[in-house]
Amino acid sequence: MKVDNKDGALILAPGTDLVASGIEKLRNSILACFKEHPDASNIVLDAAGIEIVDSLGINLIIGLYRQADAESKKFEIINAGEKFMKVANFFRFASLFTVKTAEE
Amino acid sequence: MENSTRPGILSVDDNPFNRDLIRILVKKQGIPIQEAENGIEALAKVEKFEFELIFMDLLMPEMDGFETIKRIRGMGIKTPIVAVSAISFKQDRRRAMESGCDHFLPKPIDMPEFLKIIKKYVPDEKPDENEPAPVADPNEESRKVTALSGMNFSGFHLLLVEENDILSKRYEKMLMEIGFQVQRIRSGNEAWERLQASESHVDIIVSNIFTPGIDALGLLAMVKREFAEVLVFIYTPQYDAGTFQMAMHQGVDGIIPQSGFEHSAASLIESGISQSLARGSRAQDASTAMQVRRAQEQLISFGCSKAESCDFCDIAYSTLHAAGGDMAQCRRFNRAGRCGVVLGDVAGHDVTSSYMSAIFSGILTSTWNNHQNPKELLKVLNAKLIKAGHSTTHICATVILYDGKRAGMKIATAGNPGGLLLTGGLDGKVKIRKINGEGMALGLLKKDNLFVYEEIDFKEESYILFFSDGIEPEWVEEALAGDTEIFSPKNAKGFSRKLLDRILKKHGQEDDMILLSLHVPEQFETETQGFNFSFLTGYEGVDEACLWASKFLNSDTTPEGHDVDFVLLLLRETLLNAVEHGNRQRPDAYVDLSLFLKPDELRIEVSDEGPGFELDDKKKEMESYDGFQIGKRGMPLMVEMADSVEVAGGTVTLVFYRRTSSDNDE
After folding, report:
1. Could you report the predicted ipTM of this complex, rounded to two decimals?
2. Whether pLDDT at B156 is above 50
3. I need a labelling partner for B375 at 20 to 30 A (CA). Which of A24, A90, B605, B634 fits?
4. B543: contact with A, CB 8 A cutoff
């Protein structure tokens, strides 16, 4: 997972599908990032390369949003592809946080 | 609720033997009874009828007694409920009482206790208040009779054999007053003809010892031989020790002194009935034995349903006249062909053995789904039998788990003789290998390591035979000698019957005998295009299965109106459900995936090794589901996106039909 901390925004880019087989490793990495960058005011999930998101993947995204919200940080998703958007729309992510496609 | 006709008592039990037993006992009290085979049926009945009392078995498939009681109470129904169960420990009683039952009756049923419960909860019917009260006749007072405990005789059909019309009418009046349905006849011959007439129903005969034609002693002897369930009472004007002794020897149920007939007949008849119920008189034994035999035939069953014969298992059984304790049950755990078979033999062959067999079947039914591995199942059954206090009657059992996709077989035995593996050669000669058997019988000790266990590869063209009692391999060899046809796989149906008949004809039979023959079924063929994939439990397996499925599922093969990405997502969720919940992350458990493709329909079957779940319950859980909670989203997704979701045992099936644009608009 690529991590970038730019202008107070912690950008997390898993670059891979959010599915059960990789979730545990990803969750641990994200938790470590949160600890390393306590000053970040924005949490950004870069969805480039994420095509499949299963229920554990959705749990991870919702968990990430809640964590950010609990720490009064803004959460958003960027670079969402077509397949990712289908899932995001089905689960109404946009009612909780901003989801931007690659074109936006 | 309907209550225009008296619904009486509801008996809820999945075991036919127990239902039969309770029905007989309740009917003897003149109380109507209705029955339900499981909790779901029971709920439907209590919604429709206002029962006076409910007998509820606790261990049942589908919905157990605890849950059913809770739901009945949840419906606001206050009918007294008596939990009837073989599980009789304090914590089970407490759990039953907490569920909302009023009384706990342990199995085997104690007759006096049973009658006491009925008397407590189902009082005699009150007379209609609109009916004028009968005018008392002081002359009748001296002849007024009462039963010992107020037993209701209204369900009993009584034949009164008396030549003297005056006496006959007097006794008839008195017997009818206490509830009997009386038929007066004049001779023993006539009584015998009535008994033999198929349309007549007789429970009790009360006869003068001296009757024209066949006298009472002759009638008694004939009745006890041919209609042992009928109770016979004799009255006589004078005491004669020799005659009395002869009547007792022939099994008379009571001797009534004629001089005090009207004072003592009711109590003597009641006593006779009670004794036959409580101690099991010969008449009751015979009657029960017949019921048991009929019920036991239902315990010997195989095939996924009565309508569907099994292509894996063939069975034959040969019972003895007396009630026995052999049983055989099978179960299909998932559609991938994971099947379990249990063959049991209870020590002895009388009514008690059949009763134990029924208890064993009940415990098995409620245990099996969650303990499919044969050795584990034996351990649990053993523990439950011991816990329920059945340590004096041991049970021999063979448990087989067949994994259809992989043709693997796991076998465990507890006291049963094991099996024989038959391999047929092209030359018609049969090779026989003994499969491990024996081990410690169930219900004796908590020494689980003494059960015998073996796993065999069952891929070759072969049969495995399991007998409920020991059979010498040579007998089988002998029975098959020179017969190549009988061993042909295409003749698998009926193989057991032919083989068992040949063996028993040659060697005779001393006990009930069941023969199970198992063979690898031919690969099933479907009308549709079908593809299969299997993997051992793990998330990587889910990824592999989805990758495999994506080769078949595209815009051409997915029915119109469905998004391929969502279909694949649903498939992934179903596989995750199988891995996490069905197989509980056990790395040695398989998940089987089948895709059935038709032009207008896509069917996805995912089978795991778990017991399955109630879809309706899951849907109820979903009602309070908040999509933004951390939790499982698989089921809501399945239900929302698939056109149909079915759950059968460990198999979840998703079906997608072709949708027209108007379907989607809706």
Report:
1. 0.92
2. yes
3. B605
4. yes
